[in-house]
């Protein structure tokens, strides 16, 4: 989208056209109207694509005359994550240092008297301005400029919170490290804390969560957030008061599914010792990715009376299926030593022609295992290739539960 296309999209007749055809195939629309010079056909087709994605990702934004770019929509927080995140912050004045599409700014504006939306991309800032007006968010001001430059000009202690979602693309590639993203929150840590006593950083789900306090001395909590079983965000909560507290960082796993919220928190030094089962029980449980990423699997196992299948991976087992623990669960039909010829005979004798293959701490890749056993995919039957408690390679033949 260009700024000129944005201006054309804002016309009432074009908005009406988008609404009329938003349920149509965008390619068919483009072919049907390709000879209409009065319509920005390419841009309208793009909006049709975006509106379909918005209905699932940001349902509150659906059904309104809002405008998007595909990349900004892809990078924006989903509604469930944005609402939960907004619940962490409250006050008079917040700066969203990297505004983007503006979904976080909008949901945060319900928690603050004033939100400063900052975005250096002129098109995104213009889009956000249009969308905020359409949403009736009158307490958000638009600042189209470099966020760090704006921050440097603000008086110290003039903000209650700063929210920042650094751009994690470098030379067209995604990066996970804090210092590789823009702005560099590690380099600007002291500046950020001078302007606001509290800071929330949205980091990549791939970020390594250990050792972060050495990079961000004010860090007090790491939140690993999953939505519907997918790890979506890592949030780093910093507080000026934590600079002198001497406390270890708290790690929190939060799993959102529908209206349900499940959480577990601990400090790494408080993590219990892994209890490994001599033999697998009746069920295999794979915890939610947020639990695994936050290294809280041992604590979850202790809470729900589970043990590890082995000492190296986060597969849990028991004779009960621990329904309250977020994650996937399976009934174990057989535990077999990894001997390809014997496994092929077992599959043949038990009419197993399809299975989803999973592997952890196993020498062969998924591609090699698929080629070796030539099984079709299955949403119900699973084969877990891993190690036993004694370290030998095994295959757990399982059926999905629930």
- CATH fold annotation of the largest domain: Rossmann fold
Question: What's the CATH H-level superfamily name of the largest domain?
Answer: Vaccinia Virus protein VP39
Number of strands: 18
Shape: globular
Give Rg in angstroms: 25 Å
What percentage of residues falls in helices of 4 or more residues? 25-40%
Strand order of the largest sheet: 3-2-1-4-7-9-8-10-11
Number of domains: 3
What structural class should be given to the helix and strand makeup? alpha/beta
Strand content: 25-35%
Largest sheet: 9 strands, mixed
Broad CATH class of the largest domain: Alpha Beta
Low-confidence stretches: none
Helix count, DSSP H or I runs of 4 or more residues:
15
CATH architecture of the largest domain: 3-Layer(aba) Sandwich
N-to-C CA distance: 44 Å
If you average the pLDDT, what whole number results?
Answer: 94
What key phrases describe this protein's structure?
single chain, 402 residues, alpha/beta, Rossmann fold, 3 domains, 9-stranded mixed β-sheet, 7-stranded mixed β-sheet, 15 helices, 18 strands, 31% helix, 27% strand, Thump-like
